[in-house]
Amino acid sequence: MANIKTSEKKSKAQSMGMHTEVLTGRTQQKFFNPDEAENFYYFGTYDVDFNKRTDLDVMNMSAPEANKEIDNLMSQGYGTIVIKNPQGKHSLGVGILNKLNLIFEGSLGYFGMGSCDGPIVRINGRVGWSCAENLMAGKVVIEKNAGSCFGAAIRGGDLICKGSVGARTGIDMKGGTIIIGGDAGAFTGFMMQRGRIIILGDVGINLGDSMYDGTIFVGGEIGSYGSDAVDAELTSSDQDWLRRKLKVAEIGEDFDVSKMKKIVAGKKLWNYDNLEPTEKKGAI
Amino acid sequence: MCGIAGLIHRGKSSNVGSELQGMLQALKHRGEDSTGYALYGDTDGKNFIMRFKVGENVGEGSSSVMEDVSVYDERKKIVDQTLSEMGAKIIKEERTLPYSLRYEVDYETKDLLDFSQRIESIPGVEILSMGKSLEVIKDLGNAKMVCDRYSLDKLVGTHAIGHARMATESGVDIKSAHPFWGYPFSDVSVVHNGQLTNYWNNRRVLENKGMRFMSECDSELIAVYIAQKMREGASLEEGMKDSLSGLDGVFTYFVATKDSLGMAKDTMAAKPLVLYESDDLVAMGSEEIAIRSVLPQEIDTYDPFDGEVKVWQI
Which of A275, B58, B158, B210 could form a disulfide with B314 if both were Cys (CB 3.0 to 4.6 A apart)? Predict the structure, then answer.
């Protein structure tokens, strides 16, 4: 870990209040320096105009060809792209690190919208496994159902499924919000580390199994709790946040959030390595 | 990995051979060591259709030992003689490949156990399927290769299940390929995607009850397990529900009978399945692109949940 020290010498970033500590040590963290802004290049980003719109029919394209064409259209300034005939193809719309309105007129296969940062996406269909994996920012709305591992390892953004989702939704998520209008499968929130999951319907067995942190809200029945997942008090702040989030998500605006259950980490699994074997059994 | 696909038309027949070929070919990236079809064709229901092999395909990455065609001929002769001794009359005979045969047999019995045991006591001979409607065709290569080799694209029927295999637990050969016949039940077949971890324990128990295993492929256990449950009086659906606790591991599997098609998913939902259901058609596969090959228009599909069992009738 880096050592935190105080120093009289301040960088421009510190003087602007971006951060106060000075880090030294082998793994010293590099902070953004405004003086270097002109040299900063975010690979794969373009200036796009949301009013500049085009259609892209991917019926006879492979996923790499379709993704390359989306990139090409963004480079031409198109800010709204409508994808026709996705036909359940895998890995469509991956790696978009740009502001973009992207609309899919149909369903996606596996790994749709993976590793994205910034786009606003609407999918007028269903999505397969691992939709929006590693999402950093932006909003992805699915009008129908979703497969398993929905929102795996997302870091930020809003991921919304108006239908039901499969197993292991939000597995390993590290931030952001996942909102499910219907039911969710087994192991939802498995090993989640941060972020929030909202499920308006029922959820399967082992909810929040081995969750490290984060919060899960459930409107329906819970199949069973996973290891170290416990109930918590639903505060008025929680309810206000839920109402706002559901409204923005175009989903369940009239839902009675006061009856939702709130599940958090019991944190008995924290410092797991320091426990004696018998204590580990107790924690599990 | 492996991919599975299945479809059932309700209230009508269709070109299920061609449809399943399209579904399995769409899944070929999940494995093309071997591909298998269990097709339920339109027949008059009078005679048994026996698909059997007298040897292995030794090409295309096979782990089998090459044998001379004369060995196959000799085995075929013994099969013909054994059938005659049992009072089974061969009505029609097709030899698609030197090692693969299809017989239509006039045989009056409801118990196929003794029949199958006698045929399979001939070294190198394995019955791939036995039924009044079912035909199991499996061989090495992807779906199109197998379909072309056996001219399956014209086959008309009500339902079908199939498997695109990436060999992981056992060899690249026909005996380890799916679908597996639900020996000794007429018209029962199984395909599976996943791994079973209590294979040997279950196998020992079932072998002690008189059931037979032809391969060391863990998936074969499902066919035998369900067949044993049905022998004990369970319905197909009851047997499948029982398997959720009796089989350990991760699995999604399909079972088909003469007039029904079922699916089961393990309690961890670790293996994928996408399902489309309407009044006249149910289509399902490991990935949506399999369903898209028969239904290109926009449709509503969903993933069955963990521990779910469903059965549809024709």
Answer: B158
Number of domains in chain B: 1
The three-state secondary structure class of A84 is: strand
Query: Are residues A146 and A279 located together in one domain of the fold?
Result: yes
Domain that holds residue A32: 3-39
Q: What is the pLDDT of residue A32?
A: 61
Q: In chain B, at which residue ranges do the beta strands (DSSP E only) sit?
A: 3-9, 34-41, 48-53, 89-97, 100-106, 126-131, 134-140, 157-165, 180-181, 189-196, 249-256, 260-265, 274-277, 281-285, 309-313
- Number of residues written out for chain B: 314
Half-sphere exposure of A11 (CA within 13 A, CB side): 16
Mutate to test the interface with A, among B265, B293, B303 (most CBs of A within 10 A): B303
Classify residue A74: in a domain, yes or no: no
Give the pLDDT confidence of B140-164 residue by residue, as tens digits.
999 999 999 999 998 999 999 999 9
**ipTM of this predicted structure:** 0.81
Let me know if residue B94 belongs to a domain.
no
Residue A75 falls within a domain, yes or no? no
Indicate the average pLDDT of chain A: 88
If you write DSSP's letter for every residue of A179-227 in order, what string do you get?
Answer: EESS-B-TTTTTT--EEEEEESS-B-SSBTTT--S-EEEESS-BS-B-T
Decide if A181 is inside a domain: yes
**What share of chain A in percent tops pLDDT 70?**
80
| Antiparallel, parallel or unpaired: β B157-165 and B3-9 | antiparallel
CB contact under 8 A, B306 and A167: yes
**pLDDT at B137 > cutoff 90:** yes
In what helix (H) or strand (E) does residue A244 lie, and over which residues does it extend? helix A236-248
Which of A249, A240, A191, A242 has the alpha carbon at shortest distance from A219? A242
Active site residues of B: 2
Query: pLDDT at position A3, please?
Result: 45
Q: Which of A87, A105, A186 sits opposite B306 (nearest CB)?
A: A186
* CB within 8 Å of chain B, chain A residues 175-234: 183, 185-187, 204-205
Q: Which of A87, A161, A221 is most worth mutating to test chain B (most B CB atoms within 10 A of its CB)?
A: A87
Q: Which domain holds residue B189?
A: 3-43+133-313
Residue A145 sits in a domain whose CATH number is 2.160.20.60
Q: B284: domain CATH number?
A: 3.60.20.10
Query: Which residue reads 């039924």 in tokens?
Result: B131
| C-alpha distance from B188 to closest chain A C-alpha (Å) | 29
Q: How far is B305 from chain A (nearest CA, A)?
A: 6
Give the SS3 label for residue B7: strand
Q: What is the pTM of this model?
A: 0.85
Which alpha helices (H) appear in B47-198, and where do they start and end? 69-85, 112-120, 143-150
Average pLDDT over residues A207-221: 96
